[in-house]
Write a structure and sequence with these properties.
The complex is a heterodimer of chains A (705) and B (323). Chain A is α+β, with helices and mostly antiparallel strands and 705 residues long. Chain A contains 19 helices and 26 strands. The two termini of chain A are 62 Å apart. By secondary structure, chain B is mainly alpha-helical. Chain B has a domain of 197 residues. In chain B, the strands form two sheets. Chain B has a two-stranded antiparallel ribbon. In chain B, strands 2-3 form a two-stranded antiparallel ribbon. Chain B is globular and about 60 Å long. The chains are: A alpha+beta (705), B mainly alpha (323). The interface between A and B is large, with 57 and 52 residues.
């Protein structure tokens, strides 16, 4: 009863979603957004008409002006600096705009250009000092704050009356200051455009990535060849130019050059930046965060002004909200990864009946023996992690290595070894197509094609994204094994969509159907997912009818058959289940049956734990990873089975010395070649009574050497 | 060896010496005892604040709320005495307020791990708002008869030397003793130099950070008392001024790196003297306030640029997150 409940919950309760949602980058912005919503709701309750169109329009105007400055400072903070001089630059740009317009009587477009140029120039002073002379940003912009401010004050002395006395009337200028399009203020429109560009710039374009990289680690960025100094300098220039845009709208709206223009603006803007969640020190930040921070600060200050709170209380409320929001935000950012690592593993209920016996003397097809004791070894100590092995029709042997190479051993003695192709990722399953191209699944990279001359090409590294999955499952994380149909379509398994290759045992601990079978069609160069929700699908072999594949589910401990063509197209049938171990690769045998590698044997402890998801969840939360209960992969065997699901023979190495771990095997001219992902050798085992002329390639593609 | 090891402190000292000599030679009325004392008296409050800031900056923090703590607790003393409390009672309440404020700052920075710049920005705003809203009836809190005798702290003379100078000197000695000869002082350096190492070594980093801000608040409060007693009132609007930037300049120019763990009281003295000399000379030359600020800024910039040439930083030596 209780177990039925556990099973029910595990099947229908979307346990895994929490961790997946939390690992999305946008959840970092969640706290500022929540604060923003809470503030907006609270204020609209306290102030009638707070969210009216007129009030919103006014807020949007101010938000636009300050928003530009926040965007600029956000850029500078992301690159790892700070710009305290924005308030003074704002004042100087405001002065520049009004002086050009009112005193020099320039046309409006010229004023706009001049003001932005003025801002960029002021910013470039900061940029040269900090970027090229490598002064400290804080102290430098503090000094330029004082210099710019006193320059502004000195300029005001002679000119404020002149500016105030003339009031030129230009439609374009008025549009900047008070115009709108369909009720949206001009400044807000431009802000939206700039913000969208800024978002694309920061997330999609190379210079934006450079900025984030420099903020994240200046030294690494420098050592990887990013023009650190220029990029930093340009960020300050951009900050100046954006400040100038804000000042331009401010000048158009108010048209004044008071002594207090921009005083304390740096505090407001910094507050917005930090509240939005842009980390001081660099490397983290986005346009959305800058926007959220701007709106929070502005809503609070405007709301409090509207409520006509006394100056002192106003400050207290503002300060309290700032501190509370910042504290929550910082705790959240700090603990987010810890929470993710605790909740990401979401174990499911997985029941297996007691396994068939493998003990000596008990009989049965899995009875242990010592047949593999006398395998001869190829490449001992010279190859690492040959997950799969394959032979071409000239008897040469290929195997993957941990270093991202495919190694080739030359017939007849397999002593000479050379790098056949360098790919860069761990090669897993391999298969030849009818044109002697070697297709190979590369863990973490996808499906690759290696031409006979060793040229490497990517076949595919993505498939269609599932509609309802939270994780982006379009990228291939762990392509595992493949086989090729008659028309050239390639069916390959992806073991899990929730974990990276090095975390594959964690997927076993979770025992959730995270894997899938994917079909790549080289004729149309398309990739589609054909089967989902499999428990670590692994080995794949085309069945004898050429219309179906046999595939192994490692943690499902079963072999299934899937029809991709013919009358049973789309159907899945179980060939064998409740295997005593974890099945890995499947390959053709000379007598028409199939070889299957069992990479490890089941243990009662894990079988029991698989029925107890809560126990495993507790284990995942309370214990360090290296103390978790994992599937055993230390010892295994090779078995031969037929399509009816009968085990015909099994081969063991009891001592575990000569060939302890087996993930793959190929039959070739009367021998069985054995690969193992934890091994430093390839095994070669003489098969008694096997066809001495059997070559898988010839059998499959009907060619003769 | 000697030339290549010139520190920022040395450069600032050099600029100070050049400027001082220039003023002595070209500026009549500068090098008189009376003017020297005025110069020192004018910068003594700034210097005391610089000591507070130095403690925090050495511990890799920053305290923007110093001006609020300079204005509000001393203002409270004046207000309470005006309302009829006794001076000792008012003083103890103000000191308690300062300590509580320091603990609050320190707790947020050390335990809640909010960046110091942001914490003190907001908490200063809070304290100023609190003073404005709940404590003071007027922006300028006036001296009252109950404060009789206390103005000696700001206006008295000892052996002909104005008391603020002596107070500054005493504060320097006290802070120097704290930083150089006591265990907490050594811990502050350790925490500022490398917080992670300090924590691993077993230093109670978080309590030490709280201690820094409590000390800063107390010294700031003390500076406020000196200031109030020298002008016989407490202009609480001083919070709105840019004085905090002057304090930071004193500290950083003197050679205390914002990255923490470097510098000492001597640096504060040098920075204070430079700013004081500059402002005094320009006042004698009758330069406008804005003009003074402009010149101040340019000189500071030159000092910082000179430092960058003598002690170049590049991408390899720069410390991550040191802004």
């Amino acid at each position: 009863m209780q177990e039925a409940l556990v099973k029910f919950k595990s099947r229908y309760w979307p346990d895994h979603l929490l961790g997946e949602i939390l690992s999305k980058r946008w959840t970092e912005t969640a706290i500022p957004m929540i604060v923003l919503i809470v503030v907006a709701i609270a204020l609209s309750n306290a102030i009638p008409g707070f969210l009216s169109t007129a009030s919103l329009g006014d807020t949007a105007r101010q938000a636009g002006e300050i928003g530009f400055v926040v965007l600029g400072i956000a850029l500078v903070v992301i690159v790892g600096g700070i710009d305290l001089s924005v308030g003074s630059m704002f004042a100087l740009c405001d002065f520049c705009a009004l002086y050009c317009l009112n005193v020099l009587n320039w046309p409006v477009p010229a004023v706009i250009v001049a003001t932005i140029a003025c801002g960029a120039l002021l910013g470039s002073i900061n940029g040269i000092l900090i970027g090229y002379l490598r002064l400290r940003a804080f102290i430098t912009t503090l000094i330029t704050l004082i210099i710019f401010r006193s320059a502004y004050d000195l300029l005001l002395v002679g000119n404020s009356v002149k500016i105030a006395s003339s009031m030129p009337d230009f439609p374009l200028w008025d549009f900047l200051g008070g115009g709108d399009v369909f009720g949206i203020p001009s400044v807000a429109l431009l802000y939206v455009v700039v913000a969208i560009f800024g978002h694309i710039f920061l997330t999609r374009l190379r210079p934006g990535w450079h900025i984030t990289a420099i903020g994240g680690s200046r030294r690494s960025a420098y050592n990887s060849g990013i023009p650190v100094r220029r990029t930093i300098a340009l960020c300050y220039v951009a900050s100046g130019a954006l400040t100038a845009i804000g000042a331009l709208f401010f000048a158009a709206r108010l048209g004044t050059v008071g002594g207090d223009v921009g005083v304390g603006l740096e505090v407001t803007v910094l507050t917005a930046t930090v509240l939005g969640g842009i980390t001081l020190g660099g490397g983290k930040g986005s346009v959305a965060k800058a926007l959220a921070g701007t709106l929070i600060v502005l809503l609070i200050t405007n709301g409090l002004t509207t409520l006509s709170v006394r100056g002192g209380y106003n400050r207290m409320v503002l300060a309290s909200i700032l501190l509370i929001a910042a504290t929550i935000d910082i705790r959240w950012l700090k603990n987010r990864n810890r929470i993710i690592s605790k909740v990401y593993v979401a174990p499911a209920y997985h029941y297996l009946p007691p396994p068939p016996s493998t003990e000596i003397g008990k009989g049965g097809p899995f009875e242990q023996n010592d047949k593999l004791r006398d395998v001869s070894l190829i490449g001992l100590g010279r190859i690492e992690a040959p997950e799969d092995v394959i032979l071409d029709r000239h008897d040469n042997l290929y195997a993957g290595s941990r270093h991202g190479d495919i190694m080739k051993f030359y017939a007849p003695d397999y002593e000479r070894m050379e790098v056949f192709a360098h790919i860069g990722g761990q090669p897993l399953g391999m298969a030849f197509d009818c044109n002697d191209n070697l297709y190979c699944c590369i863990g973490g990279m996808g499906l690759y094609r290696i031409a006979p001359d060793g040229k490497v090409e990517k076949a595919t590294d993505e498939t269609n994204r599932s509609l309802w999955s939270v994780n982006d499952d379009s990228r291939l994380r762990l392509a595992d094994d493949l086989d090729i149909a008659d028309d050239g379509r390639i069916f390959f398994s992806e073991a899990t969509v929730r974990y990276e290759m090095d975390e594959w045992p964690v997927d076993g601990l979770e025992a959730r159907g995270n894997g899938r079978i994917i079909c790549y069609d080289p004729n149309s160069n398309t990739t589609r997912t054909v089967l989902r929700g499999l428990k670590f699908p692994n080995g794949i072999a085309i069945a004898s009818d050429r219309q179906s594949i046999l595939f192994a589910e490692t943690f499902g401990c079963s072999i299934k058959r899937y029809w991709f063509d013919g009358p049973k197209s789309g159907k899945v049938e179980v060939v064998m289940d409740n295997l005593p171990g974890y099945p890995d690769n499947i390959n053709l045998a000379s007598d028409g049956n199939y070889w299957l590698a069992l990479v490890g044997m089941r243990s009662p402890a894990l079988d029991l734990a698989w029925r107890m998801p809560d126990f495993r969840r507790r284990m995942g939360k309370r214990l360090p990873v290296d103390e978790w209960l994992f599937p055993n992969i230390n010892t295994g065997c090779v078995v031969k089975f037929n399509e009816q699901g009968q085990i015909l023979e099994s081969f063991w190495d009891l001592g575990g010395v000569n060939h302890p771990m087996i993930t793959s095997m190929r039959e070739h001219r009367g021998h069985l070649y054995l690969g193992g992902i934890a091994n430093n050798r390839i095994g070669r085992f003489k098969l008694e009574g096997a066809d001495p002329n059997f070559v898988q390639y010839d059998k499959r593609w009907g060619k003769q050497a | 060896m000697a030339l290549s090891r010139v520190s920022q402190q040395g450069i600032v000292l050099g600029i100070f010496a050049v400027m001082f000599v220039a003023f002595v030679v070209f500026l009549p009325g500068f090098f008189t005892t009376a003017n020297m004392l005025t110069l020192l008296q004018n910068v003594s409050v700034l210097g005391i604040l610089g000591l507070a800031m130095a403690i925090v900056v050495i511990g890799r923090g920053i305290d923007i709320s110093l001006i609020a703590v300079l204005a509000v607790p001393p203002g409270l003393v004046l207000q309470m005495v005006q309302d009829g409390s006794s001076l000792p009672a008012a003083l103890s309440v103000a000191l308690l307020l300062a300590v509580a404020f320091g603990v609050f700052n320190g707790w947020l920075i050390a335990y809640a791990e909010v960046p110091a710049l942001f914490t003190t920005l907001a908490s200063g705003l809070f304290l100023a708002g609190f003073g404005q809203a709940a404590l003071f009836s007027l922006d300028v809190v006036q001296w009252s008869p109950g404060m009789q005798g206390f103005e000696w702290l700001g206006q008295g003379r000892l052996l002909g030397v104005p008391l603020p100078i002596i107070v500054f000197a005493l504060a320097c000695l006290l802070v120097a003793f704290l930083l150089r000869s006591t265990r907490p002082g050594a811990y502050i350096y350790a925490v500022g130099d490398n917080p992670n190492t300090a924590r691993v070594t077993g230093i109670p980093t978080r309590p030490i950070i709280v201690l820094q801000y409590v000390l800063a608040a107390l010294i700031g409060c003390f500076a406020g008392l000196v200031m109030a007693s020298s002008v016989n009132s407490m202009p609480t609007r001083i919070f709105n001024s840019t004085m905090i930037y002057d304090v930071i300049l004193v500290v950083v120019l003197g050679g205390i790196g914002l990255s923490g763990g470097r510098g000492g009281v001597l640096n504060v003295v040098i920075g204070t003297l430079l700013i004081g000399t500059m402002l005094n000379g320009m006042t004698i030359m009758d330069v406008s306030y804005s003009g003074q600020n402009l010149v101040k800024g340019v000189v500071l910039l030159i000092a910082v640029i000179a430092d960058s040439f003598v002690n170049p930083r590049n991408e390899e030596t720069a410390q991550q997150g040191d802004i």
